Amino acid sequence: MQSPTVFHAPKRLLMGPGPSDAAPSVLKAMAMPLVGHLDPSFIQMMEEIKGMLRSVFQTTHNMTFPVSGTGSAGMEFCMVNLVEPGDEVVVCINGVFGMRMAEVAERCGAKVIKVEAPWGQIIEASQVAKALEGRKPKLVGLVHAETSTGALTPVEEISELAHQAGALMLLDTVTSLAGCEVNVDKWQIDAVYSGTQKCLSCPPGLSPVSLSDKALEVAQSRRERVQSWYLDVNLLNGYWGTERVYHHTAPISMNYALHEALRLVLEEGLETRWKRHQQNHERLVAGLSEMGLGIASQPGHQLWQLNAVTVPEGIDEASVRQQLLKDHQIEVGAGLGPLKGKIWRVGLMGESSRPEHVDQLLGSLKSILSR
Amino acid sequence: MQSPTVFHAPKRLLMGPGPSDAAPSVLKAMAMPLVGHLDPSFIQMMEEIKGMLRSVFQTTHNMTFPVSGTGSAGMEFCMVNLVEPGDEVVVCINGVFGMRMAEVAERCGAKVIKVEAPWGQIIEASQVAKALEGRKPKLVGLVHAETSTGALTPVEEISELAHQAGALMLLDTVTSLAGCEVNVDKWQIDAVYSGTQKCLSCPPGLSPVSLSDKALEVAQSRRERVQSWYLDVNLLNGYWGTERVYHHTAPISMNYALHEALRLVLEEGLETRWKRHQQNHERLVAGLSEMGLGIASQPGHQLWQLNAVTVPEGIDEASVRQQLLKDHQIEVGAGLGPLKGKIWRVGLMGESSRPEHVDQLLGSLKSILSR
What we know:
Aspartate Aminotransferase, domain 2, 12 helices, homodimer, alpha/beta, Aspartate Aminotransferase, domain 1
């Protein structure tokens, strides 16, 4: 094989379902020279990352750290540690990531009870209440912000129902964290995971997670060993905790980037950041509306950071997406599953959520659709 | 919490068990702007990575790609896909990573037959032959280069024995790949994994793997689903194969870095690179010998890229390591398990393997030991 030449990444404006654009200082952090994963400077940085993640998740949970894998590894981390073969688990499904959660639970040997809503709709607390009648499941799992549909399900009431039934509450905040309110302690979330490449605007590769003391106890008092060595919290606790026992080699540069990305989030302030995401969403919706385009997900529960834009009748959605990428250097996402061909997924996440980006996309979309 | 300030990584010379120093162009690649994980430019780059990995592994295996996790995730990838509950698996253990392999296999439900050698020694083919007598195991697992002890076990004969017994041959090349000969096709390796942060001199975060067609068939014709969703090759094949079905979001920047690191390896040439590792190892051994220091691992089977240096009687090894780091900005590793306190682990991997680094370490060590 002829040896490939140096790769030069094209400059895109990332307005799809993730990754989002990373801030210049985050990219710069990635290029710092490496240190060892047990270097005192790195260990101090790990502590700072844990502290900042607690602030962003709004939690005091001690066991809060980034798993060395992408968001789906964070989902698997929660499931493999908390679920044992034969456990009953309730999973709420209104899109791709709820389906994935159910499948991951099944692969842990769980008996999964599914609570389903049409794609684009939220999960109603009453549905969960019904599923919990006469049951004592180990865990209730919910996707806060469904990246595949743009729907934001309210969490608090469902979490309360889960706790009343004696279950742990598991929340997927891959797309919600740092783009809209996520309050782990107030909402009594026992296990939560996210991804770095959405509203945190850090490159993909790590999955911030947090476990309550109760969840940690469950993981520590299992009948059987955790099926994954890589994701076993009992081992990871030795490395990310105070003992610093070698487990695996942490992705050094990715942690540099996460440190800087979290610093920027807290510098901006959580509420200011959420407000910015809301305002740019409203700007997009207003501009789309002028063009006769709407949002497909349930009114009143539409995500600010991921907009499911309805493809007009007679328009080839794939061709529009390709033109946006090729001629305008803008990436937007396609619909998945039942929404394939019916929506474009427009991300306004983290660094990508800016008024000038909204205007640029609207202008480009207008020029393509008016051809 | 007071928001942490910007993190500045100290400049270290990384001469421990990994990570090794990354080349400037690899660090620069990490700082390129992000593209989407289904961007045509990224997909072309993925193909180039697969091709270059095949060259470095010396294989034509189609299923060759980087797992989105560190080296241990690569180990787990191989085990979870190939092993099912109740399977008999032979694991060779002569250090930390053989032990880990056995534990990962057990967590897959395997019945593990252990072939053990003292730490620092190699696994003899005759030991494996004996363990295979009257057995038909699913798989034989071996660590090529034991990072915890500095011993390099010859592979070919053991692989032949495994195949004669009808077993798949699994090889850990985390520390060997690109630092000494690894020939997957010639040695008939069915499953192999490595890490990016050793002799490839790329930051940690990805695990190059390769499966033979036979191994892939085993994974595809399992009785039970793979216990890990994140590492299921049947799903990963859809993303890294020709279909490009969304599975997880690939760590974009890490793949940029791996592309550049592999390019540098092939530009240098595999044999030239191995020779360089050998020469710098010999330079180190000669210098140590002048100081009355030796190598603890089995003579004739000492790794070039990871040197287990015997700590002299009466010397506090931890104090020397700390002085090297604090006063000389040089990282070396500690011994593990039975070798704790008895050796320093001196890595000469990839970019770190240079004569001037060897001389710098020897000078620093001399000045500390003569105090």
